Amino acid sequence: MYLNIIFLPLCGSIFAGLGGRWLGSKGSCFVSTACLGLSALLSLIVFYEVGLYQGKCIFTLMPWINADLFNVSWGFLFDTLSASILVVVTFISFFVHLYSIEYIGNDPHLSRFISYLSLFTFFILILVSADNFLQIFVGWEGVGLCSYLLINFWFTRIQANKAAIKAILVNRIGDFGLALGIFTVFICFDSIDYSVVFGLAPALKGQTFYFGGIYFDTLNLIGVLLFVGAVGKSAQLGLHTWLPDAIEGPTPVSALIHAATIVTAGVFLLGRCSPLLEYAPKALSIVAILGGITAFFAATTGLVQNDLKRVIAYSTCSQLGYIIFACGLSQYSVGVFHLANHAFFKALLFLGAGSVIHGLSDEQDMRKIGGLRRLLPFTYAIISLGSFSLIGLPFLTGFYSKDAILEIAYAKYSVYGHFAYLLGSLGAFFTAFYSLRLIYLCFLSSPNGYRPVIVNAHESSLLISLPLGVLAIPSIFLGYILKDVFIGLGSPFWANALFTLPFNSVDHEFLPTFIKLLPVCLSMIGGFIAYYLYNYKSKNLFNLKFSFEGRSLYTFLNRKWYFDKVYNDFVSQFLLNLSYHTTYKVVDRGIIETCGPAGISKLLKALTKSFHALQSGSFYHIALSILGGLVLVICCCFVGNNSVFYILFICLLFLTPSKL
């Protein structure tokens, strides 16, 4: 049963990809979706056995690498952390498959698309269920490959090409950091199995490791290197630029990437490595600070984005910041809880945005939409519900985990904890602002689009509406149902899957009322201000935007704090110039070709011409060649170097004129 959860998506991918020609589009969709549905049901059973009944399943499938001390097997670990992520991934992937049947139904390459989706799910399941670092790296790289294939699915679109290349190149940086972390783990522990590494982690506390010419604390170094991998996959500040551009792929791809798969990898890695990170306080402080900055940065950037999917994409980046700094505060259970909640309402938001785009003939500029509350009432309700859950409106799913993260940040009573709380609270204000802005511009404002588009606007079919209706249920109730199980005081749910040292535990139940209410109040104020400004003060917003200060601020935020410009103008251009003028011209064509094949061939040609000049048939040249050869042979005989003698003898044969 446990292996079926992992390998059923792979079977669906193989049948759809290799057998799509015979099965047809509908047959491929049926097989792949059925495999995902069965995998989702089995994951529920595993969650019941492993999570609710505190079981644990570890088994080895087969040996993989045996090289001296480096021994790795294909093994699988199913504990409460794996079981929780399995349910989230398989269920959302199943609904994305179901949604794609209609959404991509007219595409001639539907079988290939479904195959990529199933392969994507397979690799994230490999990552989640791995019992060693090398196997998690296999899933890590497989997810990166599938993200490239899915973002670039419409490969004739130049923007999709650029976004896919950007995604895979930016993630290479994070993957390189993760690889260095795994190498360091093996050097320090002589193993990459979780059980060995996590059991020996306390023994390395206080030890140093020589890296890059500097001595570092071993566990802090490992924690930072592993976090670099999480920064790439979970789109934290610095390596975040690929995630908003990933919307260039089809909408189901955006839902799968932003909700349940690739962004899950970084958070899962931090949770899985909690026994290491707990003994690396400096690494944890870096995690908390960067997560808080990311939450604030992405929330401010989403304020002025005009693409419907891009606004939701920046909300993903912001929410990942909350999850990451929760892990940096040693509250891994709260981070995973918000990850599960966020997956459902973010999938709901993206698929709801796809329903809007599908009903408006592929229009996704919010300035050209408007007035859809009567034309698309069901989609209006779905996106409003997802947005309110994202904001953290009381008694919806997002409220129970998002507010818990902010309360824990304050209750940590540390500099970086209060820093994360401040930025997170401001991020909550901006999140409410851009969420209400999205609802107003798309549904509540007067129609702003082209007449044929608005007149022909329509609700989506059953296969699109059904996943939306089902995902709405956990977006309302999941947080309330799982709050006491996941983060309740004294809950034994996580057992040893997530490890927290006793002095890192935080009690946030008895904080001042003002601290608890501040994020909720800021969210409500932000939403009210957005509605008031866009409904009653739109002319003032227009005048503000075209003032010098307003235009400067708008340009700064709309251009994403100029991260892309800095990367393009200073990093990418510098590397291109360096690679062309130095690496290519000087090193490749200069040194390597001169000392390598080109230089050797030129030298041989010159020597050949010189030797050919001796083949003139003249008695003088013949005598000179024989005399020179005899002198060399006699010298070699006296020296006694037989190898040199043989080489010179062969040269003598070639140098001896053919005409005597």
Summarize the structure in words.
There is one protein chain. The protein has 27 helices and 4 strands. Among the domains are: 326-494 and 512-552, no CATH class; 559-595; 597-660. The strands form 2 sheets. Strands 1-2 form a two-stranded antiparallel ribbon. A two-stranded antiparallel ribbon has the order 3-4. With 660 residues, the protein is mainly alpha-helical. Helices cover 74% and strands 4% of the residues. Helix 13 runs parallel beside helix 18 (415-444), helix 17 packs antiparallel against helix 18 (415-444) and helix 17 runs parallel beside helix 20. The longest helix is centred in the N-terminal third of the chain and has 33 residues, at 20-52.
How are the SSEs placed, and which strands pair?
Blueprint: H1 2-18, H2 20-52, E1 57-67, E2 70-78, H3 80-103, H4 110-129, H5 133-151, H6 158-189, H7 194-200, E3 208-211, E4 214-217, H8 218-233, H9 242-245, H10 251-259, H11 262-272, H12 274-277, H13 281-301, H14 308-328, H15 332-359, H16 377-391, H17 397-411, H18 415-444, H19 451-455, H20 462-487, H21 513-536, H22 538-545, H23 548-558, H24 563-595, H25 597-614, H26 619-639, H27 642-655
Antiparallel strand pairs: 1-2, 3-4
Helix pairs in contact: 1-2, 1-4, 2-3, 2-4, 3-4, 3-10, 3-15, 3-20, 4-5, 5-6, 6-8, 8-11, 8-13, 10-15, 11-14, 11-15, 13-14, 13-18, 14-15, 14-17, 14-18, 15-16, 15-17, 15-20, 16-18, 16-20, 17-18, 17-20, 17-21, 18-21, 21-22, 24-25, 26-27
